[in-house]
Structures are given as structure tokens and as C-alpha cells.
Amino acid sequence: MLLFAMGFLLVILQPSTGQFPRACANTQSLLRKECCPPWDGDGSPCGELSRRGSCQNILLSQAPLGPQFPFSGVDDREDWPSVFYNRTCKCEGNFMGFNCGECKFGFSGLNCTERRLRTRRNIFQLTTSEKDKFLAYLNLAKNTPSQDYVIATGTYAQMNNGSNPMFRNINVYDLFVWMHYYASRDTLLGGSNVWRDIDFAHEAPGFLPWHRVFLLMWEREIQKITGDDNFTIPYWDWRDAEDCVVCTDEYMGGRHPTNPNLLSPASFFFSWQVICTRSEEYNSQQALCNATSEGPILRNPGNNDKSRTPRLPSSAEVEFCLSLTQYESGSMDKMANYSFRNTLEGFADPRTAISNISQSGLHNALHIYMNGSMSQVQGSANDPIFVLHHAFVDSIFERWLRRHRPMLEVYPAANAPIGHNRENYMVPFIPLYRNGEFFKPSRELGYDYEYLQETALDSFQEFLIPYLEQARQIWAWLVGAAVIGGIVTAVLTGLILACWKKRRGTSSEIQPLLTESEDYNNMCYQSNF
């Protein structure tokens, strides 16, 4: 019965969002450098007959990049996706997808005209049935092949510039693990040489928008394979937590009774196999991760290096991070000071906002604390706690956006590390998304967080917070200005009263009943100031 149900689900799958569209993973598409599959609704490329979109040349950003990557033409991810395709579907209106067959995030309906707002909830606020359904959905994704996407198992050069395609199938959950790996992997330079200081999803301005898109795509994929259009990712609010409270068999898996590095046999995830965790092996072979199983999920929460991450993040640290007014600063990488992004990502001290790469704060602290699969960047999405964690990180990003209300221009347009400028396309997503397109409030993208849903009064108070903070910082100057203003006012008042009394002192008997206008003006407006 279970096999029949899974088979039925595979039949009804709709186009998804991810890496290489299956329809474009062939010699013809690679040699033509074109990925414009037909929309099933009318059979035309990009649904052009139905005015959903059209096949167009990709417009790449020409803005200068930062100095962190001193090469050109050595990495398939440079100017994404132009190494593989220079023509893709450009969708119109609220349509989206590699063939314009879907709706933009936040829209639904036959013509994508209906707005839709979903709410992400705290995992501990879910009912038992809702929580069990979430865990079952994760397992379904781990066991459901992606119908619409495949992964690359070789570089473009290894594919003989497209004449020898190297792709393979992958399940829905691991598709997202692979995408996270591919965005953060090292550059292969030939021989045994690699360049490690490169990451298209971390250590730079795109960190928060990239993971925002990643979660939206992951959420939508679960909605499709389950048929549950109301599904949203739950979050784990880890502020002030004393330990990993989600690390129980009831939730994300408890500790193995005899091996503290493994999950409990009673966990939903005990039998899961990880992929893309052996970066040094791939580098030595100058190869890409091919999604071969590499063993069980590893996790030993709390038994991490305490000198780097002594505890889980606190509420005070989150509040300090939210008070930072600059989204990005300086070199716009992990050395940036007073950067909201760098502080939230965890490369800057969450009490001072000064870069300190010997410590791991906020976002990074959770990864290090888990002490296992979560602690290695490229393979961290193997642990399903990843989605709970990043949903909460995204909610902090959302709080900052609502508090400071930045213009799009706040997001750097130029000189950011490779792939992170405002108009750069995010690696490795097809359809294409620019970093700046997701530097906006979540409600414009169709979702909200339960703990952030606010009344009009709450919204007004949140709006005032940055102004009150600025006032607090200059209160001494304000008090001084008030005192000086009071003294000046008192002096002026005294002089005016003295002038008035002097005029009143003239005897009424000798004052003329009428005066010439020019004498009257001289008397009334005479002043020594």
C-alpha cells in the first residue's frame, strides 16, 4: 500500500525548483546553451503561447567583484549559469519556474493572481499529529526521486564542454543537500590544487537571501510531493536553550545508547544516509560529489570545542545583533565589522559586532554545537535540524528588515565577493533568482512567522525602535541642547519684560493720545538684539 501511495505521488508531481532541469540535461541543450523547456499547458517553450514567458538571453551583472577570488574562467559557477546556458525562460507577471509553469512565491491560482500568506510555526507549538506529519514528510522527501531535476556529476570541462553530459538522478531531500554542497564547494584548479576562499552561499551579503530562497524552494517541494498546499517549515527558537531540546526521538532524533555520535535506533532518521561530506576526497580527485551514500547522520550535541562555542546563543545576543544598522560593511566577507549579516552569520562577536573568526556565534554556533554532520559547511543540510535552524535564522533576518526598513540600495551592488552582488544570480538555482530579489519582507514572498505576527501597535513600536535607539545614543547632546535652549529663552524673556516695563513706566498723563506712525514703529520694534 505504501509503495502504491508513493507511486501515485510520483505520477502527480508538478515541476519543481532546484538545480539542473532534467529537460535541459542533454547534449542538445548544453551545446546550444539553451534551457527553455515547454510548458505542459500549451506545449510551447516557457508557455509563450499563453503569455507566461519567453526564451531570452541571460543578462549578467557587469558590476565589479571583491578581491577574494583572483581567478577568471576556472569555475563553472562564475557568472552563473552562463557556462551551461546563456538562454533561459524569462517569465512574465506572477509566473515562475524553469518553464514558467509555476507561480511566484506568495501567489497561487490558475493564473497566479491570488495572493497567499502561510505561517511558519514553532515546532514545539505543533500538535502531535502535526509534528508527526512533518517528520513523515521529511522521510517521504528522502525516499522520493525528483522527477524534474538531476545533479551534475562532473564539471563542464569533464563533460567535454557539453558533448558528454554527466548527470544522475537524486531524491528530493538530497537534491537540496547537493545544492547546498555545490554552492559552497571549493574551486577545482587542476592537479591537486583547489581554491578554498570561495562560497556562493556563505561569508558574504548573499548568505541570508540565498538561504531564504533555499527554504522557500524546499518548502514548495514538500507541498508538491505531499499534496499539502498548507505545509510550512517549522522553526526551532534556540535562544537561551541549555541543550538541544529538539534532539529527542519524539522530534529530530535522540542520542544512540552506546555510540554518542549516532542517532537513536528509535529515531525517524536513524537509517538516513548522508551525501557530499567528503570534500577532501573530492578535491584530491578533482571531482564533484555524485550523491553516493557516505554513512549515517552524525550528531553529538554539546560535546563540541567549548573554546570556540561555549554555549547556545542568548536572547541578548540576538537583540544586540538586531540593533546593528548596517546590513553589510567593509570587505563584505567574514572579516566585516559592525555588519548585521556577518554578526548573525556568526563570524563577528554577538556582543561587539567585531569580527572574530576564532569564535562561532549565533548561526555558526548552532552548527558547531551539533558536533557532527551539521558542523561541516558543505554537508550540513544532511541533518534535518538544518531546516529548523535556518528557518529561525531567517526569522531574525525578517525582524531586522521590519525594524530598519532598508531600501534595496542597502544591499551591495558591487565589490562583494564573487556571486554576492545585488544583481548576481544565485548559484545553483534554475530558474534564476538575483540576490536583491529576496532582500524584502517575507510577507511579500507569501509567508510569515507565528511569533512575528503583530498588531498595528506592535508594528508602530517596532518602527520606532531604531529611532529610540538613536535618541538613546545622543541623549547627552539632547539634554545639553535643551539646557542651552532654556538659558537663551530665559535671557530673551527677561529682556523683553524689561523693555515692556520701561515703556509702562511713562506717566499716563504726559503720554500723547496719538503718535505719528513712524514714531510708533520705532517705539514698538526697538531692540538691542
From TrEMBL:
Cofactor field: Cu(2+)
Please identify the protein, giving its name as recorded.
Tyrosinase
One GO cellular-component annotation of the UniProt record comes to: melanosome membrane
Which Gene3D superfamilies does the UniProt entry name for this protein?
Answer: Di-copper center containing domain from catechol oxidase (1.10.1280.10)
Identify the main location: membrane
Identify which top EC class this enzyme belongs to: oxidoreductase
What family is this? Belongs to the tyrosinase family.
**Transmembrane feature ranges:** 474-500
Kindly list the places in or outside the cell where this protein is found, as annotated in its UniProt entry.
Answer: Melanosome membrane
Q: What is its EC number?
A: 1.14.18.1
Cite the entry's keywords alphabetically: Copper, Glycoprotein, Melanin biosynthesis, Membrane, Metal-binding, Monooxygenase, Oxidoreductase, Signal, Transmembrane, Transmembrane helix
The signal peptide stretch is: 1-18
Supply the source organism for this entry. Answer: Pandion haliaetus
Q: How does the UniProt record describe the way this protein sits in the membrane?
A: Single-pass type I membrane protein
Q: Name one Pfam family in it.
A: Tyrosinase
Q: Which GO terms describe its biological process?
A: melanin biosynthetic process; pigmentation
Question: Could you state a single Gene Ontology molecular function term?
Answer: tyrosinase activity
Concerning PROSITE patterns, the annotation shows:
TYROSINASE_1, TYROSINASE_2
Domain Tyrosinase copper-binding residue range list: 202-219, 383-394
